[in-house]
Design brief:
Shape: globular
Oligomer: single chain
Structural class: alpha+beta
Order of helices and strands: HEEEEEHHEEEEEEEHH
Distance between the termini: 37 Å
Largest sheet: 7 strands, antiparallel
């Protein structure tokens, strides 16, 4: 599978707009789901067109169709409703969602973590391309996890950072607690002040001070400013004619490099 070029002028406004919309969807889910171990009530599900909420009591479901630039709202009572994102900001989008929730009988308060006041601007081609990228990463990481033994978390999208992520717990971390020793594998569309474009990453927690940094495969490299981990930039992934296989193979290489950092914990 060959993935699209995302190094275009409309990338930044598009991905930040999708990020704002994802925080609205995540905010609704956070308000309606009970707290779960490792904050697993917070993340959303990656789907081919974008993201979707987990199962919410009462039958409410929300999803984002990246390419169409729409939030899809569905309940048994109201059926399916669609809200166009273009021109709205996150605060206004949340207001529209809350109106539909009240009509459907949901009366919970749904606060956002911070105001979202920038109007959304979405290039549909780039947004649809990123949906394909996100699902390719999901597929590649799932295939990687099928090749190893261990205790894992699901592969999910966290709305706060908008990264797709999964955790592999250290053998001694029998409670599968993310506060304990683990490896994290993920893919972020950007990181303010560090990365303008997407990147695949993996890191160990806690990271040992005496870690022996070995060479990484291909174009991958070590990031060591602010946090320490292995990184492969998206341009190297999109240049490969079998991107899912490259993601799978790179994640496996990162795992073999990092597993020793937590093997005895």
């Amino acid at each position: 599978m060959t993935l699209p070029n995302l190094y275009v002028p409309t990338w930044t406004t598009t991905i930040h707009s999708l990020h704002d919309a994802a925080q609205v969807v995540g905010g609704v889910q956070r308000a309606l789901l009970p707290k779960r171990h490792n904050s697993q009530h917070l993340p959303l599900q990656p789907i081919p067109m974008g993201i979707h909420t987990q199962t919410i009591p009462g039958g409410l479901s929300l999803s984002l169709d990246y390419g169409e630039g729409r939030l899809l709202f569905e309940t048994p009572g109201l059926g399916s409703k669609s809200i166009a994102l273009e021109g709205l900001n996150g605060d206004k989008l949340m207001s529209e969602v809350i109106k539909l929730m009240r009509q459907a009988g949901f009366d919970q308060e749904v606060p956002l973590e911070a105001p979202l006041t920038t109007p959304m601007q979405i290039d549909g081609t780039i947004a649809a391309g990123y949906a394909a990228v996100q699902y390719a990463v999901f597929t590649g990481l799932a295939r990687f996890k099928a090749r190893i033994e261990g205790r894992f978390s699901p592969i999910v999208v966290f709305p706060h950072h908008f990264d797709i992520s999964t955790v592999i717990f250290a053998p001694g971390n029998v409670e599968m607690d993310e506060g304990g020793a683990h490896l994290n594998f993920g893919f972020a569309p950007f990181t303010d002040g560090q990365y303008e474009h997407p990147y695949l990453y993996a890191y160990a927690h806690p990271f040992p001070e005496d870690f022996a940094y070995s060479a990484l495969p291909g174009a991958a490299y070590w990031h060591r400013e602010g946090w320490t981990g292995a990184v492969l930039n998206y341009d190297a992934i999109s240049a490969h004619n079998e991107s899912e296989w490259l993601i799978e193979r790179t994640a496996l290489s990162f795992y073999e490099t990092l597993i020793g950092a937590i093997a005895d914990k």
